[in-house]
Amino acid sequence: MVWQRLGRGxxxxxxxxLQDKNVILARMIMGEATEQECQYLxxxxxxxELAEILNANDLAERYRIYASIDEKEAYEKASVVLLKGSxxxxxxxxxxxLWRVAAVVLLLIxxxxxxxxxxxxxxxxxxxxxxxxxxxxxxxxxxxxxxxxETLSANSPAVxxxxxxxxxxxxxxxxxxxxxxxxxxxxxxxxxxxxxGKESLELISTLHDKEFWLTLDDGTLVHMxxxxxxxxxxxxxxxxxxxxxxxxxxxxxxxxxxxxxMVHTPQGDVKVYGTEFHVNTRSRSENGQRNATSVVLVEGxxxxxxxxxxxxxxTPGQQFSILDGQCLIQxxxxxxxxxxxxxKFDFDDYPLQDLMEIIYxxxxxxxxxxxxxxxxxxxxxSISRYDTIEPLLHAISKITGHPITIKNNTIYIxx
Length: 415
Known about the structure:
Strand content: 25-35%
Number of helices: 10
Structural class: alpha+beta
Low-confidence stretches: 1-19, 82-90, 181-198
Shape: elongated
């Protein structure tokens, strides 16, 4: 804009007429525009027109018109002004970008933490195969699935059979672990130790000729064999899952990274890192004793810690045995353990000694082989856990050529 002085009057009276907005814009850049010029621009120029000042070509042209300088010098002056504006804009945009990046990073951190926590605390029940479901159904139909269930209270002490190897002090310590973390500690009472916490404990016992399928609070499935006992909380605490076992059971544990699953036995503890394993606190040791504790890992990972000892890690297919503080790790044939959980065992060229061990565990009946030479005899066939034992023993007698009798719950393979 060019404002020209018109007419006559006092020298301090300025009357202007508008000729070119670009000149006033250039004067504003140089800091020489009057209040009257600035006010005029505010009233008569749109935001788009004012924004054009950021255009280098227009700015240089304004310089040239206002200062009557050549084009090259005008561009140099315009570049200086634009550079200052660009730096300010860069700092502003840089701060904006940093805030946006920080917000995105924070969102990723929060989202990642939430996702990790969700996965860490997620409880995934075990996948139950059709064979296992069929075994459960068959067991119920044959009348084999039965147990005595007792809620432990001040009037029902936590008693575990004496031959299981637990002392009263051990039971009290274990009940403190098994009880919910929100519960109070167990107390001494007439006849034993009782839990007095908010969460009740359950004691399940099976008879000598029965079994039982138990589903725990987290979805863990426990297949209990005959003459077995398990103590567990009605509801697991928020930071751990503990049970106490004497006897024999097959565990299919629900996955929960935030809460370890522990099986406490008279001779040590089993910490679960995987899913499926078998525990027997009355297993046969190398010298024939039946009070050894055996842990067989079928799938996943477990750690076994003998009482007062260090933890041993197992891989699938390994058996860990504990007897009087002595430990042994060896390879195990998983077929009988899996078959025990799924009704039927098919075997081909199987040593008679090993087959009699399976019969001992499945039918809870002891055996004596009069002729040791028969132990290595190889037999083939199929066993269903819910068939009677007599046809099986008759078939073994025909294969070995030795008569078999049963007396006082013991099988005798005679010469």
